[in-house]
Amino acid sequence: MIRHRTTRAIAALQVDLKEHNWNEVFANEDSNSAYDAFLSTVFSLYEKHCPLMKIARKHHRSNKPWITKGIEDACKKKNNLYKRFTKQRTKEAEIKYKLYKNRLVNIIRTSKKEYYQTLLEQSRSNTQKTWRILNSIIKKGSKNKNYPDYFKKDKDIVLDKTKDIANEFNDFFVNVGFNLAKEIPESRNNNDLNKHITQNVSSMFIGAVTHREIINIVKTFKNKKSTDCFGIDMILIKSIIEYIVKPFAYICNLSFRTGVFPSQMKIAKVIPIHKNGERCQFTNYRPISLLPQFSKILEKLFVNRLDKYIEKYNLLSDNQYGFRAKRSTSMAVMELVEGISNAIDNKEYTVGVFIDLKKAFDTIDHSILMNKLERYGIRGIAYKWMKSYLDDRCQYVEINNVKSKQLKVTCGVPQGSVLGPKLFILYINDICSVSKLLKCVLFADDTTLYCSGKNLEQLLTTVEKELNILKNWFDINKLSLNIKQKLEKKIENKIDYFWH
Fold first, then answer.
1. Which of 159, 186, 227, 476 has the fewest Cβ atoms surrounding its Cβ within 10 A?
2. Are the C-beta atoms of residues 445 and 428 closer than 8 Å to each other?
3. CA 26 to chain centre
4. Among 71, 64, 176, which Cα is nearest to 115's?
5. What is the CATH T-level fold of the domain 318-365+416-499, as seen in this structure?
6. What is the pTM of this model?
7. How far is CA 363 from CA 151, 202, 360, 482, in A?
C-alpha cells in the first residue's frame, strides 16, 4: 500500500486546507480538543486527496546504477543461454553459456569499478561525500530490516506470531530503562540531590509564537519520508505548512499559555533495528522512535525559548559540548588534549576516567528531572508544560505493518525527540560540580574525568576517592554505570590512563 501523492493531489489538498473553516479549532480553549480537531481535519483531507492504494508489482530496473540497459539485455541473453543448456544438455551449449557468463561478470565488474571511480573523482574536494561513497561500497551502516520468523523470549519460549513479537519488543523497550534504574542501589544521601545546583531566582517565560517562526522552523527539518503514527511525514508538512500555520500557531500558543502538551503528540511509533548478535534475540535490537511530526515543531518552538533562557543565565557548564550550538566533539577532544599537554609540560602524571552509561536517556527519573528544572528556573506555566510533556507518554512497536498494543513510558526522555537531548544535558549538568579535584569534559552522555599530579601513587588514591563520591552522585540520579573493563596502563611522558 502506498499513498497516491502526486503533484496534482497535493495542490488540491493545499486548496482545501486554505479554504477550510478552522473555527472548531479557534473556539477551543483546551489544547487537547483544539489539536484533536486540527489533526482530524488535516488527516481526513489528506486521506481524501492522497488515499492509500494497492499497486501491482512491476518489473523495476536494477537499483545498481552501474547496471546499464545494455548489461540488462546481456543478462537476459545469459539466462536464455542457460535455459537452452538445461534443455539440450550438450557440451557445446554448456561452453557457450559459461563463456558468455564469465564475459558478462567481467563487464559488470568493470562497469561497477568505473562508476565508483567517477563518483570518487567528482567528490574529491568533499570529504564527507567521499566517506559516504566509501561506506556504501563496503556496506557500512546498512541494516537488513527483515525480521526472522521467530524470536526467543527465553530458553523455553519461542514466539513466531508477528503480533506477539511486536508486543514483546514493546514490553522490552518500555521496561529496559525502568529495570536498570531498579538495579541501582538506594543512596543514603538523597538530601544531597540538588546541593550542586545553584537555585536561579529568575524564572523562564514562554513567549508567543508567530506564523513566520513556525514556517522557518519547518524549513530546518530534513526531507524525510519516515511516517509517524498517523502516517504523516515531514515532506508532507513542508508542502502544506503555509496553509495550516494559522490554526497550528493558535494551538502552539494555547499549549504554552495553559501549560498542556497535547496527548496525541505523545504517541511514539517504534521500529526495532538489529544491532549485532543473533537476530532472534530481543536484546540485540535498538528502538528507532518516530514521533508525531507536529510534536517536533512544537518541541522546537519550546527549545528555541529554552536555549535563550539557558544562554541568558549561563546555566550549562562550559565543560558540556553536546547538543549545543557552535560546539563539537573536536572541541571536547581539544580541551582534553590541552589538559594532558599542560600536565606533560609540568612533568606530571595524568589519570583519565572514561565513563560509559547504560541506556542513559532511558533511565532518566522524571521526578528528579523536574526537581532540577525547578532549580534552574523552570517554574509556573513552563514547569507545568514540561511536566505535561513528560507525563502519560506511550508507544507501540510496528513490525511488518503489524502494530503492538500501546504501553506507557514512565521514565527516560523521549527518544527521537527535539527536546529530549536538551533535557538530558540539564539533568547531568551538575556532575561537573561534584568533584573539586577531577576536571570534567562532557559530550552529552560521554563523560571524561581527568586529574594530574607529580606523585602517581597519591594521584591514584585521589582519583579512587573522588570516583566513590561520583558513584554516589550517579546512584542518587538513577544513572547506571556500564563498567565493561578497568585498565590501568603507564606509558611514556608520565601519562596514565584509567579506563572505566
1. 186
2. yes
3. 34
4. 64
5. Alpha-Beta Plaits (3.30.70)
6. 0.81
7. 26, 29, 6, 13
